[in-house]
Structures are given as C-alpha cells and as structure tokens.
TrEMBL record:
The lineage of its organism: Bacteria, Pseudomonadati, Pseudomonadota, Alphaproteobacteria, Rhodospirillales. This is Xanthine dehydrogenase family protein molybdopterin-binding subunit. Residues 18-132 form the Aldehyde oxidase/xanthine dehydrogenase a/b hammerhead domain. SUPFAM superfamilies: CO dehydrogenase molybdoprotein N-domain-like, Molybdenum cofactor-binding domain. Keywords: Molybdenum, Oxidoreductase. Gene3D superfamilies: Aldehyde oxidase/xanthine dehydrogenase, a/b hammerhead, Aldehyde oxidase/xanthine dehydrogenase, molybdopterin binding domain. GO terms for molecular function: iron ion binding; oxidoreductase activity. InterPro entries: Ald_Oxase/Xan_DH_a/b (IPR000674), Ald_Oxase/Xan_DH_a/b_sf (IPR036856), Ald_Oxase/xanthine_DH-like (IPR016208), AldOxase/xan_DH_MoCoBD1 (IPR008274), AldOxase/xan_DH_MoCoBD2 (IPR046867), AldOxase/xan_DH_Mopterin-bd_sf (IPR037165). It comes from Marivibrio halodurans. It comes from the Bacteria. The keyword Oxidoreductase applies.
C-alpha cells in the first residue's frame, strides 16, 4: 500500500483542531470533588501546619496533610534507580515537618469546587522556621554550606566518572589545549497543557480508575497500586489527549499518588488541575550545569582528548536518579573521535525545584560544551570551523563505532550506523557555505555583522527494555492496534497505523490505533527518550507480520495453494500469480470463527485473527544530525536575527517524514527558547523570580525562523524497521549553533559566549564591558 515513508497527514488532527479533543480538564464525573495543593513559600524551613480554619469553611470536604496519608503513600518511589546515585532522596507526597524548595506540597484541600478549594487554601496557616537555603551550585559543595538533607554528610548526591583511554597522556603531548568554563542555566518544560489527575474508585469493578497526562501510565499504575496496597490488576490508568509532555511528564509526581489516595479515602471522584504558576515552580526543571572542561588537539586540530569536571544541579530531590547528568557525561564526545576522555560529574542537591529530563535530557548541555570547545580550537589554530569538524567526525566506514565506555542503558556505547560527514556536507551545501562566508566578510566592511554557526550531535534513542502490542483483524476486515505507549502529541495513531497498513495490505483508514490505557496490553514502559517509534513501532511490525503469516496460512487452505504463493493487498489475501483469485480478510476472520453451534471449521488454526507481540532492543540506536545557522546582529541594539536555520538529520528509516519534520521544527523552537529566553531564576533565599510568563519567557512564532530540513538516513541494524528516534534531535544542537553564529558575527568586538541562555541585554553588557570577554550571568 506504500504507507511506510509516506508524508501522511495526521489522522488525529481533524478532531483536535476542531475542538473535539478530550484533555484532562475535560473529564467530569458525577459528584466530583476538586483538589488544590498548598505549597511551600520558603525554600528551606521547618514547618508547623494549622488547617482548622480551612476545614471549617463551607464546602470543604477534607484537608490532607502528611499524617493523613498511608505509610506507603508518603515518599515517591525512585523512577530510575541507579547504583551511581549513592545518596538518593525521593520527594515527600506531602511535606512532613520540613520543606526543601519553594512549591513543595504541604497540604491538599478537597472541596466541592475549585473556587472553594482555592479560598480554603488561603486559610491554611503554615509557620515557617526558616533555615539557610542552598542555591549556589558550586558553594553547595563547600564545607561551610548548609545541607539540603541534614542526614547527609554533604550536598553531594552522587559522583560520576566516565573515562576511556589516557587523557593525561594525551594532554601532555598536545600542540593545542583550550579550556572553557561554560554555564547552562535552569529551564522548565512548559508544555501547552499543564499537569492534571482525575481519580475515582469504581465500586462495580472494585478498582481504582485514574486519568493522567502521563508519558508513563504503567509506571503510574505500579506506583498507585503500591501506595494503595492493591494488586496492579485493580488499578487502571488512562491517558486522554495530552497537550505535550517533553519528558518532564514521564515520571511520577506527588500528585500522581496523592489524588488516587484521596479518591480512595473519600470514596468519591476527585480532580486536580495544575495552574500555570504551579507549573512554573513545581513541575520538574532541567538543564543547570557548570562545566570546566578542556580539549587537547594536534597542530592540525585533530582531537586528542577531553577532560575536566562539571557540576549538575539536581534540585532538592532525585526523582529520576542521575539520568540527566549521566546522559551529559556520555554524550560529550558526540559524533567525533575522542580517543582519550575523562570527565567527572558532581551531582549536587540545592533548595530548588527537582530536576528531571526535559526534551534533550542532558544532551543539549553535552553538545554545547563540545562545540564551544571546538570553536575555541578553531580560533586558536586558525582553522575553518567546518573543516575542523569534518577532520574529527567519525566516518561512515568506522561504524559500528565503539566510543570506549558504558552507555546510559548499561551496555557498551556503540554507535550502530551513521554518516555525519555527509550530514555536514549537505548542511554546507544548503547554506552555500563558501559564498555565504564571502557575503559575511563583504557585509562586515559595510558595518553589518553576520555570522555562521555549525554543530553536530548524536542522540541515543530507542531505549529498552521492551514494548508490547496487541493487534487484531476484525470481522469487517479492519485492523485494531492496541498498545500501552501513550501519545503526547507526536502522531502515534498515524505512524503506527501506517506500519500496520503497509504490512497487512489494508487501506490506512481501516487501521485504528488505541493507546494510553493500561487495560490494552499487559505491560508497557512509556513514551520518552525517543523510543516509541523504534521500540513500539517494531513491536507493531512484528505483530502485523504474525497476522500476515496467519492470514496467508488460512488463505492457503481456502484457496487450495501454499502460503508462499500468497500476499496481502487491498484488504485481501491474493494469489501472487493471479490476483483475481483472492479472499477478503473479513471472510478469513468469519471463517476462522465458525458458526454458532457448529464445530470450528479450521481447528488447526483456532478462532479469530489476533496476536500479541513485543520487541526488546539489544541496545540503543543512535540518531545523528548537523545543524547550521546564519544570523545577523546589530551591535547598537544587540538584536539577533536568525536569517537561516538548517537541520540535516539521520533518524534512520522514516515512517512518516511529515511528522518527523514537525518534530524537528518543534525541537528547534524549544532550542531557540533555551538559547535566548528560558531561564528559571532564584534569589539567594531560594525564592523563584520567574513564576509567571511575564518573567519566564518562551520563544514565540516571531522568534523561530523557518527551518530548512533534509534527511540523509542510514538504517539502524538493531530493529526490523531500521529506525532511530527523532523526538529530541531538533533541540540538542540549537544553543551551540546559535551561540557559535552570534560569536562569529561579533568576532571584531572580541565577544566570547560561554553561557546560555543569553539575552540582548547580556550581549549589550558584553560589548560595552572592556574588563570581560564573556557573557555575564544575568540575575
């Protein structure tokens, strides 16, 4: 049917853009109560809580504090345990006597409606006995620093060392050594839809039913079952439409446990919807790292090694283990040959919102520091940036490429396939690099300052351990695909329908994909880490091929031929040599089911056309990309205009290039925000200063350029579809690319960029400060 690889318009869009979607706040149940969470106004304090006035307000049903929760529902489970995390600390569902960041949940008001609950929340009296707040990332590790967790000897949550080769020896014989101190500031996820949970106890089925805007409903099922002391079969978690997840909706939050516990205790439906201020201060953040790294090269710019140390701010707790800094540490070599590598990461507790993966998940930081080091080498040695990168990129002939250490998934980090030099060449071709360089030089003589930035990246995708898919051909010849992998807006109902339609030879519109419900299949992992297409898509292909084999076997009996002589086409099993001899899939289903009261006509096959299949990747696949940008900067105003932005990607085989292009454009949009705008700022006492969209800025349509996209795919050998993930590649290189382009534009002024995000004000100060050649960290 030619569906795989087709630019198919998303089947979901008509319903969503005409207002017929169903999001979490659209779910309303009879007799439903509403929850408002009382949150800490102090970053670090011992607290006493008086809820008597709130309880007395008309319309208040109950007020919950820590002591009202069952023991099993008081501390969140570690969503990603890792032996490297030597001092893990999970968030309390409701703070019990001590708060550790502004926004930490203290109490839950349950009322007949949201308005009453909001009023009651104002009546809760919290007495704060404040303690010193740990905010500065580096000072947090000094002996004089206060401790976020008083039972620990320091604020060090974990120390990670990643190494290969002999870095010290490489540096000792290097011709060129450059060193940088690079800062990446904290940001928030900020999807269009905030978080929310609806829960009720279904007496008829004797089970807890939960709706959640989750990327991992099966993870939530397990956590809720453990908190309530129930077997998992008595918990159902469903996903309505989700207005974006970006990773930070991919783990368990306090409210994910709190709302079902309240619903069970009160025996009535309850709803909690996060408002935007809560989202800004309490939904998990990401990005904050300080890197002190150096790169050693030969005289011609060949990389000999990278070494150094970086600090990662994990916030007050470790809800997803050490995943983000670990991903940074293993991704710093990127798609380059780095034979000698030694990097230490200190994971540090601070009195700020906890940190978890947000789109890119530690990789934008890695790409930023590597590309900034390469830019510095290029300046020191007088080598063209494109030529320097091409000299050091892993060539197509070197794949599979062993990087030299263990990856995030515990396997040997080995790039499965790729050709990044070809990606770079294509990006330069689209940019018309040589002529554009000449134009920039000419315009500079006229007082106009344009610059070019280039960055290459790698992303580990297709994370295991497995995904399971159920599939059936229905009595009318249509196909139903059932999976636990939820959608967060990336078009799964379209892409996976294309895979099934191609293999089963049915029209695209005859395939229905059901997702995001823990009753659909037995087990699932979830949607994160650019894994759904690779892992779930492969399970879909396996299930479809199993049904194809079964259909051909039954068809062979009915058509009196062998299965090898048959194929599936246009909803039929057809004889390859004579397509006029065929039988409808609907007839095959009907025949296999037999007639009521009669013996089964095909007893060797059993009834119906259904199967369950799973796929377990042996290790990660690795997507790669090369981005390039042309910018113009006005030195008088420091306004940066992105004139062109080019993204050449290798995501392996593409199910639907139209959807993939949308992922790239969305990723670049977030990257632009990360480069110029998005910054969560705390004062010295731990008060968040960016708690509204007046202070926390995001990129708008006026800031994001048209993205010129091309794909040069090398199929992965690690899965049956030859795919690699595409969810985060658009985000990863953007801060590095734009920083390089802006610095290149302002080269006559000696500007050196070593922090993101950077604003026009930062550039303005940089240009007019003779004592500093680096972008200053804004308050």
């Amino acid at each position: 049917m030619g569906q795989f690889g087709k630019r198919q318009v998303r089947a979901e869009d008509d319903r969503l853009i005409t207002g017929r979607g169903c999001y979490i706040d659209d779910i309303t149940l009879p007799n439903m109560a509403h929850i408002v969470v009382v949150r800490s106004q102090a970053a670090h304090a011992r607290i006493t809580v008086d809820t008597s006035d709130a309880r007395a307000l008309d319309g208040v049903i109950a007020v919950f504090t820590a002591e009202d929760l069952p023991e099993a529902a008081r501390i969140l489970p570690d969503c990603h345990p890792n032996p490297a995390l030597t001092n893990p600390r999970g968030p309390s569902v409701l703070a019990n006597g001590l708060v550790r960041y502004v926004g930490e949940p203290i109490a839950a008001i349950v009322a007949e409606n949201r308005y009453i609950a909001e009023d009651a929340a104002e009546l809760v009296q919290v007495d704060y006995e404040t303690e010193a707040a740990v905010i500065d990332l580096e000072k947090a590790l000094t002996k004089q620093s206060a401790r976020v967790h008083e039972d620990l000897p320091s604020n060090l949550a974990a120390l990670i060392n990643i190494a290969t080769g002999n870095a010290d020896s490489a540096f000792a014989k290097a011709h060129c050594v450059v060193k940088e101190r690079l800062e990446i500031q904290r940001g928030a996820g900020q999807a269009m839809e905030t978080r929310g949970v609806v829960a009720h106890w279904n007496r008829f089925e004797d089970r807890m039913v939960v709706w959640n805007v989750s990327q991992v409903p099966y993870v939530h099922r397990t956590a809720i079952a453990n908190a309530l002391g129930l077997p998992e079969r008595q918990v159902q978690v469903q996903n309505p439409d989700v207005g974006g997840g970006f990773g930070y909706k991919g783990l368990t939050y306090t409210e994910d446990i709190l709302v079902p516990v309240v619903a069970r205790q009160l025996d009535r439906p309850v709803k909690w919807i996060e408002d935007r201020r809560e989202h800004l201060i309490a939904s998990y953040h990401e990005r904050t790292q300080i890197h002190e790294l150096e790169m050693a090269t030969t005289e011609d710019g060949t990389i000999l090694g990278i070494r150094g140390r970086f600090y990662h701010d994990t916030g007050a707790y470790t809800p997803w283990g050490p995943v983000v800094p670990l991903l940074t540490a293993v991704n710093i070599p990127g798609p380059y040959r780095v034979p000698n590598y030694a990097v230490q990461c200190d994971i540090v507790y601070t009195n700020t919102t906890p940190v978890a993966p947000v789109r890119g998940a530690g990789r934008p930081q890695a790409c930023y520091v590597t590309e900034r080091l390469l830019d510095r080498v290029g300046k020191e040695l007088g080598i063209d940036p494109a030529a320097l990168r091409k000299r050091n990129l892993i060539t197509a002939e070197e794949y599979p490429y062993d990087v030299g250490f263990i990856s995030r998934d515990g396997t040997r980090r080995t790039y499965d396939s790729g050709n990044v030099p070809a990606l770079l060449d294509r990006a330069l071709e689209i940019l018309d690099y040589d002529n554009t360089l000449a134009d920039c030089a000419k315009l500079r003589t006229e007082g106009r300052y344009r610059g070019i930035g280039i960055a290459c990246c790698v992303e580990d995708t297709g994370l295991g351990p497995f995904e399971e898919v159920g599939m059936s051909i229905e009595a009318d010849g249509s196909v139903t695909v059932r999976m636990g992998t939820p959608s967060q807006g990336q078009g799964q109902k379209t892409s996976f329908a294309q895979v099934a339609a191609d293999i089963l030879g049915v029209p695209f519109d005859k395939v229905k994909v059901l997702t995001g419900n823990t009753d659909l299949v037995r087990y699932s992992i979830g949607t994160f880490a650019s894994r759904a297409g690779v892992v779930t898509g492969s399970a879909v292909s396996i299930a479809a091929n199993q049904l194809k084999e079964r259909a051909c076997a039954i068809g062979a009996v009915l058509l009196q031929t062998s299965p090898e002589e048959l194929d599936l086409k246009d909803g039929k099993v057809v004889l390859k040599a004579d397509e006029t001899r065929s039988i409808d899939l609907a007839q095959i289903v009907h025949t296999s089911l037999g007639e009521s009261g009669n013996p089964l006509p095909l007893p060797d096959f059993g009834p119906g056309m259904s199967t369950t299949a799973s796929f377990s990747p042996p290790t990660n696949t690795f997507a790669t990309g090369c981005h390039a940008a042309l910018v113009e900067v006005d030195p008088a105003t420091c306004k940066v205009e992105i004139l062109r932005y080019i993204a050449v990607e290798d995501f392996g085989n593409l199910i639907n290039p139209l959807i993939v292009d949308g992922q790239v454009i969305g990723g670049v949009s977030l990257g632009v925000g990360n480069t110029f705008f998005e910054k969560a700022v705390y004062d010295s006492e731990g008060q968040i200063l960016t708690g509204t969209f007046m202070d926390y800025l995001v990129a708008t349509s006026m800031d994001v350029p048209r993205v010129e996209i091309d794909h040069l795919s090398t199929p992965s050998p690690l899965n049956p579809l030859g795919m690699k993930g595409a969810g985060q590649g658009g985000t990863i290189p953007v801060p590095a690319v734009i920083s390089s382009a802006v610095e290149n534009a302002l080269e006559p002024f000696g500007v050196h960029l070593c922090a993101v995000p950077f604003s026009e004000s930062d550039l303005f100060q940089n240009l007019r400060n003779d004592d500093s050649k680096s972008t200053r960290k804004s308050a």
